[in-house]
Specification:
It is an enzyme of class 2 (transferase). The structure is a single chain. It contains ten helices and nine strands. With 273 residues, the chain is α/β, with parallel strands linked by helices. Helix 1 links the parallel strand 1 and strand 2. Helix 3 crosses helix 5 and helix 7 crosses helix 9. The longest helix has 19 residues. The chain is elongated, with a radius of gyration of 23 Å. The termini are far apart. The protein binds adenine. Adenine binds next to strand 5.
Amino acid sequence: MRLDVVTIFPEYLEPLNVSLVGKARARGSLDVHVHDLRDWTYDRHNTVDDTPYGGGPGMVMKTEPWGEALDQVLADGYEAGRGAPALVVPTPSGRPFTQELAVELSERPWLVFTPARYEGIDRRVVDEYATRMPVYEVSIGDYVLAGGEAAVLVVTEAVARLLPGVLGNAESHRDDSFAPGAMANLLEGPVYTKPPRWRGRGIPDVLLSGHHGRIARWRRDEALRRTTAHRPDLIERCDPAAFDKKDRETLSILGWAPEPGGRFWRKVEDVEE
Ligand code: ADE
């Protein structure tokens, strides 16, 4: 997979040389190109922004540097024989970045990222390239960052670990908390390693029992416990067919019950409200 990132802070993308993404690059699974947007400015101050039409606070990134940068990056990639590019535009007004979207992006041969600073990029840039290629406007969460570079790192890491051969063990994705098509998207429960006692704290006995069935059940119950506490929305969204008899017992102990009619599980206080 080829990745291009156009940014006014190329040094912000240094982490792409480290850890899993760095190894994927070294092994040739990822071909990363980081570009300085200011290379496509021609004035003394290397201006990339201007005041917004219609007034208001902040500055807007200008069309010309982005247009020239993207034309060149796309021409270089095409010349290198890359397939169909997709533009990934990090923005707090994008669609939520999910594991499902990470899987979709991991199946594309070439991603071009356009992390913005200030109030974002002049809309005409996205509209222009959307006539030529798929554009994914993505938000990594309901908060506003100072720029899209951190979002590029997040998306790249989520995508890179899905590339064939990068994690080493294809099984490892299947159990991801948000793996698409999983029966139930549950958060993973706690994990432990040696030593067996630390500061007076032990390990749940079941994990030392060697009894695979009981261990799997314990993990499932812990996942249900954690998900009801941190992400009740995931339980409510779940197809109730994904809950077996023991899941239902656990949910009931945690204070959840099926809605009258039996389709969804809800925290009991909510049902009574
Ligand atoms: N740029 C600023 N905030 C962002 C967010 N939450 N997601 C993606 N890009 C952003």
